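Journal club prep — side note

Before the paper discussion, L.F. wants everyone to see what a predicted structure for a comparable chain looks like in token form. Sequence:
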Amino acid sequence: MRALLQRVTQAHVDFIDGAGGSETIATIGAGLVVLLCADRLDEEATGDEGGEAAADFLARKVANLRVFEDDAGKMNLSVKDTGGQVLVVSQFTLVADWRKGNRPGFSGGAGFEAAERLWLYFCDQLEAEGVAVTRGRFRSHLRINLVNDGPVTIWMDTRDR
């Protein structure tokens, strides 16, 4: 699984309908925006190498990653420690293969059913870690509005553990 985390002071997600109208579907205050992607290896793997195991690992890391400042100004607190919120948005484009040509390919992403299942599972595991979670809407055109705090942006890939 892959995730891009951004520490934010606030964020919201708007659903864009087919007619171009929009509706705000999720809002958070201080916390993290997590763009999350399951890939084909997550879909196909079992045991400690993929799927739920990757989502469990990633949820635990996101909940406990110390990227918020303590009273001394040092990044020493997690989103759990601060009582912050996490907005999780499914983002299949994190698997983009851009090496050939000028149009990225996305064939490395998990299929829709597996990707949604793993996205929901990740959100549930993050909540089980004691974090307040709000969600985007799977397989929808969304507009993410955020105020990056820091800026603090971190790339995470469970293959790198």
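L.F.'s comment for the group: The first strand starts at residue 2 and ends at 16. Keep this in mind when we get to the figures.
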